[in-house]
Amino acid sequence: MADHDYIRELAAFVDAKMKEVQKGTGTANPHRVAILTALTISDELYRLRKQHSSFEQMVDGTVQRLLELTDDPGLSARA
Fold it and tell me: Domain coordinates of the chain in residue numbers?
C-alpha cells in the first residue's frame, strides 16, 4: 500500500512540474514539455547530489578533526 501512495506522490510531483514547465515555456507540445520537465528534474537532482556530497565532505572533515582532538594525549592531561 505504501508503494502505491509513493507512486501517486511521484506522479503528482511530475504532473506539477510538467504544468510549471508548460506554463513557463508556453509550449503545448507534450513531448517537448516531458523532455524539458525531465531536464528540470534531473538538474535539481544533480545539484542536490553535489550539495549533499559537499556537506558530506564537510561533516567527514569535522568528525575527523574532532576525533583527532579526542585522541590528543595533551587533552586528557588538561582535563
Answer: 2-78
